[in-house]
Amino acid sequence: MQSGYTCQRCIRSLKGLSNTPPKTFPQRLFPSQRPITTASTAFLTKAQSRHISARQQSSAAIQGETPKYEPPGIRTPPGLADTPPPPVSGKVLLEPNNLFHPFSESPSPEIRRRAAFIKTHAYCPHPNHHRTRMPLSPQDPETRKTPENTSQPPAFVRFECPDCGIPTYCSEDHWVEDYESHMWICDTLREINEDDHDLRSGRFFPEFEYPGPQMEEALVNMTNWDTYLYSREYRAINEERPLRQATRLLTYPVTIGSILSELSPYDIRKTRRITQEGLRSLSALRYSLHPPRTGADDSIKGLRPNPPPVRLFILGARAESSLPREVWQQLTYLFHRATFHLIFIGPESMANRDREFPLPERTPANPFGAVVEDRISHELKISTFVEYYHTLHQARYFHPYDPYFDCFVLFHPGLGHPASSHEWADTLPQLLETKVPIICTGYTEWDMERDRKWVEEKVGGEMDILMTPGENKFRSLRWDLNDFDPADVSCGNWGVWAFRGKRYETTMMEGT
């Protein structure tokens, strides 16, 4: 896999490099390289594109051999394999042993702006202050602010902890008084600090090089991250920080694949995460995702009809819709004879994709102005709808739904969150009406349980649990910081569960 597949966020961190284009070589094409589209180059400047192009063209020189997946009709130009990589001007901004910096004194202007944002929006968690909102969980620091103990008005955070470098308290006195409570998250906050600086360090990110398709006989071990990365032949990651950076992106496609695959680590016997109804629904999807061989080939006699693609409806899409398409392509490599159509739906589904605006006009052929990316690969198509799902459902835009080819995925939907539950009130009954699996993830165990209880309260017995709530084996290993509450740390897709609209079976009674 070529180094040009580096995460877009990491590419943006290389702005400190010189704009002088390095020496380039004749361009080669790979089957795993897709044509340049607006979605994948939305954040690239001309200078950065030249750097990436040079990296793609010189990767064969680094490997010292002909690319593994190069088609027979396209050969490496003479002398390219022995040509050293072009020199890259500029220097690494931060060394691995110099990643810790207080946010307000960071060498990165972006992190300094983030520190200023935290200091003007986050409140001090010391129990002497009055509450600023209702507690969202038993672990919320607001639960300690009882009327008997509070004596001071709310105050914004101003003091940066010297151990983690993140603004956490309004003053040093409150930090010292509440240090015992802060110790529980201080090490995690320092880890977040160093990971954020690492992304902007200017180093090369080999962990964002993704492998291409592999032979079907080489089965992928989905037990955990280590076995998955090894059996999928990812480049070896020998340190914890690069592993955290890599899993932050891969958690989205691999979480879906780990549930839908016939090699899933979740089953009905050992882990007992999958229920009997869940086994029925997942077996239908796995029948389509792992079809038997049909004897198809390139000859006239070998022509066979192709089944429709498996549609994955990702509702409430936010950051996942702007992931590099090479990340989503890892999902297709887990299912060799299946095709996918990813459909991102939600008012924020175009977040971080500003270069793709304005949206297409709404026409009779495209009534909702969908952004369609149909040339990513033969196995993957992506459509984006900046619209609420219940609007599309009422228009019957995706009807009919097939339990063998359709599945809904909700990444951190906040179904039971007080600020977002009203947005799902109209959507939930329509999701249950489709009778297809609905996979949900949560930031924390409390967040996931709150969503499950909200669904049960709204629909009662009109749903079947397909997968019991629990920790996701392919959660993100990197922790994230809530800028509105630095004491609130979470990781992407920590937990996962699944449900479906209740299905009723009719039986014939004797004597009727």
Walk me through what this model shows.
The chain is 29% helix and 12% strand. The protein has helices at residues 8-12, 46-63, 109-121, 172-177, 179-199, 225-231, 240-260, 276-289, 325-332, 389-394, 421-424, 427-434, 445-459; strands at residues 159-160, 167-169, 310-315, 340-345, 371-373, 380-385, 406-410, 438-442, 463-471, 479-482, 485-491, 495-501. The protein is globular, with a radius of gyration of 25 Å. It has 512 residues and is α/β, with parallel strands linked by helices. Strand 1 and strand 2 form a beta hairpin. The strands form three sheets. It has an eight-stranded mixed β-sheet, with helices on both faces. It has a two-stranded antiparallel sheet with strand order 1-2. Strands 10-11 form a two-stranded antiparallel sheet. Helix 7 crosses helix 9 (325-332). The chain contains 13 helices and twelve strands.
Query: In angstroms, what is the radius of gyration?
Result: 25 Å
- Helix % is 25-40%
Strand order of the largest sheet: 5-6-4-3-7-8-12-9
Shape by Cα distribution:
globular
- Give the DSSP E fraction (strand runs of 2 or more residues): 5-15%
Number of separate helices: 13
SSE pattern: HHHEEHHHHHEHEEEHEHHEHEEEE
**Which structural class best describes the helix and strand composition?**
alpha/beta
Mean pLDDT: 81
Q: What is the makeup of the main sheet?
A: 8 strands, mixed
Question: How many beta-strand runs?
Answer: 12
Low-confidence stretches: 1-6, 10-90
N/C terminus separation: 65 Å
